[in-house]
Every structure is written in C-alpha cells, then in structure tokens.
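ugh ok fine here u go
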Amino acid sequence: MKHYNIPIFIVHYGCPHICVFCNQKKITGVETNITSNDIDLIIKEYLKTLPEDSYKEVAFFGGSFTGISIKLQKQYLDVVQPYIKSKKINGIRMSTRPDYISKEILDLLKEYSVTTIELGVQSFDDEVLEKSERGYKNEVIYEASNLIKEYGINLGIQIMPGLPGSNFEKDILSIKEIVKIHPNEVRIYPTLVITETELEKMYARKEYKPLELEEAVEQVVPMVALLELNDIKIIRTGLQPSDDLREEGVVVGGPFHSAFRELVETEIYYKFFNILLRETEVVKVECNEKNTSRIIGINKKNKVRLGEKFKISRNDKLERNEILINLKKYTRKQILDKIIKESGLE
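structure:
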C-alpha cells in the first residue's frame, strides 16, 4: 500500500538547545508557529487529493514535537483524532530529540495513536554531539530508541554525516550503531551550512569545513549499503529541496543537490561495474525498465564514464531488484555486498 505523509511543519521556538546547524530563532513568549485550526485545514486539503486506498500519516516535522508543552501537544493531537476514528488517517508521525523521550511522553503519544517517532540523532559520537551543541550524550540515544520500540511505536533515526568534529570513520561507526538498534527507517542528511546559524560563523572563521558534494556521495554509498543489507529502510537521503533551501544565500556551504539520492545510486552502480571490469572487458547489463535510470546514472553519468565498456538493454522479465550482467544474475543485495567487501567495512 502506498504511503503518504501529510506534513505539518512546527517550529519549536522554546527549544533550549541552539544546535550549531539550526537556524530556528527564539521568539520570546511564542512557543510555536501554528494553530490547531491550521492543522485541520492542512489535513482537509491533503485528503482532497490523496488516494483513499493508501496509508496516510499526519507528520509533525520541523521541530521537536515532544519538546513543546504537554497542553499544546494534546491540542495538536486532538485535531487528528476524528480523522483516525473515521479511518481517513492511519496514524501520526513526528520528529523529536532523543532527550525529549520518556515513559510519560510515550504514554501520552500511545494514547493518541502515534505510529512513528523519528529521532534526530545526528551522530553517536560524543565529541561530535558536543561540538554540534546537541546537549546530550550517546547513551540518551540508546535509552530513547529502546523505549520507543518497547512501546510498539515505529522508530525512525535521522543521521547527519559531516558534522563538526566528525570524519568518515566516526560517521560509519554511527551507521553501525544504527544497525545494532535496528530502527524501522533512517534518513541520511549530509550536513549543510545554513545561513544565520552558528555553523555559518564557524565556516566563515574557517573552523569548520563541510563535505564537498562528491565527497559526501562517496561517503554515503557504504552507509546506504550497510543499512540496506541489514533490512533497514532508507526513506530519505539528502535534504528535501524545499523552496526555502533553493533561495539564494540560504545554503552557504555543503553538499546540497536536489537529486542527492540519485547521485548516490549512480555511484553504487559505477563502483559495482568497476569491480566486475577487473575480470571482463565489457559489462552487458539487462534490467527492468524501472531500474534503467539509476543504472545509467544521473545525466547518463555512468554511460559517459564507462563508454564502450558499458552496454545496457531492457528485460522486463527481471524484478526491479535484479539485473543480468554478462548473463549472470545479481540481486541488489549482492551488489551492495560486493561494494561493502571492496571497502573493507564488513
């Protein structure tokens, strides 16, 4: 069944933590930026166009939902209840911080039919967390993750490669910790330097160097491979290219690309083909039509890089996660497994 989020973006002005990458401003006397009536109108508008036979979650994004007052949480959650009772909505999703999770909070969320909680973990390395001014240590992540799973609520984890004090080894270790926790889903957001943040000041003072685009793609490839090989769903790679991010001057630095996941997919297949080309002069690929674009690569990049060594044809008898190369069948997992073995990250 197709899944749809009905996004409700809530800025948490009362958050006591100003993380170096965050540009949400503190506004005295204002806790957040949306009313219950706003939420109801947004839900009604989305329901006009979403298919009836789909799985729909109202998704509270943009801030730390469980960090706002209990009174306001209840007001917002109350709006969704009639839609859940009438089965027009299947559940509620929200993003929050690991240190804003407790049994008391989860008791409330369970009562209100919350189905998914995404934790903005960002890193499992304590030095990185400290330099990013997250305000908690990694033990809090484990505690919050375990509690959410105990309550039978789907767990999502958001991770940010390339934060201050981090490096590839630390970010891979974070991915390996995610594998141990085994959430239902993960979002990978390579760190961007956004205007009006502490990170922008650090960048200007040359105290912080963001990942270059190619560097970020190179590092995210094995992250995707490790997660997929362990049956953890990746629901997003790279920040959603919203109108705000597209405005000139908003993204000051870092690996922003409107099709970041496609760049990663391009690199996955390029790496795999190069491994095979050690033993053959040409890779003759057969694949399902739905798989063609990511195998050829964004802007036909793989076709250009490999030239005459690369041939591709359509074979719709194959499943989307299968390809034939020189008449030998490979599954998606076999492809990713070869990349991980090649990188020595088993």
